[in-house]
């Protein structure tokens, strides 16, 4: 296990207002010189960062507890001057957590520079251990180069191999072992040179502006699913489960959306996911609103059944509150299954790969306990010239392996396209 790194000096943090810096992603410096660029952007708003003033690499079943303890320590010792005072100003960290308890490393990073924008207001935060640094100039840099000569190949399993794993899961469900399990597969993209993560980030945020485009320590993607957002006591979660592929023909897609909203298989799968989120949030909330029926979320590649769950939390003195909630929710039935423990065991028994940080919480938090933790979906892990893409599907009693494979293919599309040149 990687030992947690604790910086000895307290963090010195300063946030000042900024004139509109334009496209946040265009500010990220070249990844060859600054590998630690971080991003969390949706519809043009969000946070981007670079450099690492403090880093923690927790692992194992208590990775969230380690992360919380570290954050409580950082918040308790940091010297902060915040002239903007919005969620995401002052001391902030980005994080990305392993899906499983047994495998994979997680990471939390406090960037040296964070630039944020929210509702027409922008700011820059500088953080360093021990001494105050000067506020850097914030300006767009040279755009990144596209990945070169990208080829794709199967990851741990071929499509046919994965279909037989799905068929095995359907057998287990019909034997009464569990109700739902989410199974994923990976795909490997290989380029002829190291991939600059800023390229796919730009492409993803352009093509999927309604999703949260993220990058933390090599894991990037554009997720449509918000595990939990906490903002001044208001807690929200966007639950997705139940998917249909788009055809590109708007009229036909509308008809398909109506079919999705009536499909008992998809409604059942969705219900498990909503229930798992509502049950996990309930102990942390004084009041909650769980809509009775889902809406259909239209994305360029797929449509999902979606439910926005909202609640009010009474846990106002927890500086890691958003992470406490993310831990309580992970893994929801949207990425694990029902019952959770049986589904987790089945995933590690038959999926045949390590998910790493795919399908784990990814996002940011500040020193007030506010933050946003998405589920790292439509994502990939970048390692030099090699990029590992992930996609998964919820399997229930009447799932068809071939249809699930096609659904997984559709979920690879965002990152696949983002790795292509223009
Ligand atoms: C597991 C993934 O997606 C999840 C599974 C869904 C489904 O099975 O219908 C829909 C949205 C996500 O909650 C993925 O994108 O990899």
TrEMBL record:
Catalytic activity reported: chorismate = isochorismate
Domain Chorismate-utilising enzyme C-terminal: 160-411
An annotated Gene Ontology molecular function: isochorismate synthase activity
One Pfam family named in its UniProt record: Chorismate_bind
Family matches, as InterPro entries: ADC_synthase, Chorismate_C, IsoChor_synthase
Entry keywords, A to Z: Isomerase
Name of the protein: isochorismate synthase
Signal peptide span: none
């Amino acid at each position: 296990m990687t030992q947690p790194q604790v910086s000895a000096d307290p963090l010195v943090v300063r946030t000042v207002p900024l004139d509109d810096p334009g496209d946040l992603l265009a500010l990220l410096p070249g990844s060859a010189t600054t590998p630690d660029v971080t991003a969390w952007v949706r519809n043009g708003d969000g946070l981007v960062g670079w450099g690492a003033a403090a880093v923690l690499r927790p692992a194992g079943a208590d990775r969230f507890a380690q992360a919380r303890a570290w954050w409580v320590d950082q918040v308790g010792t940091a010297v902060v001057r915040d002239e903007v005072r919005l969620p995401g100003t002052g001391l902030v960290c980005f994080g990305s957590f392993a899906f499983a308890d047994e495998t994979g490393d997680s990471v939390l990073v406090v960037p040296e520079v964070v630039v944020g924008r929210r509702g027409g207001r922008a700011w820059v935060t500088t953080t360093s251990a021990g001494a105050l640094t000067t506020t850097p100039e914030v300006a767009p840099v040279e755009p990144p180069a596209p990945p070169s000569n990208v080829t794709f190949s199967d990851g741990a399993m071929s499509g046919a191999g994965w279909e037989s794993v799905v068929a095995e899961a359907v057998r287990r469900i019909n034997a009464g072992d569990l109700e739902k399990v989410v199974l994923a597969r990976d795909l490997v993209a290989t380029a002829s040179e190291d991939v600059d993560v800023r390229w796919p980030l730009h492409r993803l945020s352009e093509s999927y502006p309604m999703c949260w485009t993220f990058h933390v320590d090599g894991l990037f993607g554009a997720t449509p699913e918000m595990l939990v957002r906490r903002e001044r006591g208001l807690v929200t979660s966007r639950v997705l489960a139940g998917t249909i592929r788009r055809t590109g023909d708007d009229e036909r897609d509308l008809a398909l959306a109506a079919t999705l909203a009536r499909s008992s298989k998809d409604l059942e799968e969705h219900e498990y996911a909503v229930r798992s989120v509502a049950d996990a949030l309930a102990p942390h909330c004084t009041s909650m609103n769980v809509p009775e029926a889902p809406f259909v979320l239209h994305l360029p590649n797929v449509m999902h059944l979606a439910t926005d769950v909202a609640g009010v939390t009474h846990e106002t003195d927890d500086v890691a509150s958003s992470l406490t909630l993310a831990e309580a929710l992970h893994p929801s039935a949207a990425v694990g299954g029902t019952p959770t423990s049986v589904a987790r065991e089945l995933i590690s028994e038959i999926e045949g790969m390590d998910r790493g940080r795919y399908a784990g919480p990814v996002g940011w938090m500040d020193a007030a306990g506010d933050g946003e933790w998405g589920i790292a979906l439509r994502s990939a892990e970048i390692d030099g010239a090699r990029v590992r893409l992930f996609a998964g599907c919820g399997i229930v009693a009447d799932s068809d392996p071939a249809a699930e494979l096609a659904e997984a293919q559709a979920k690879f599309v965002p990152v696949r396209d983002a790795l292509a040149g223009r």
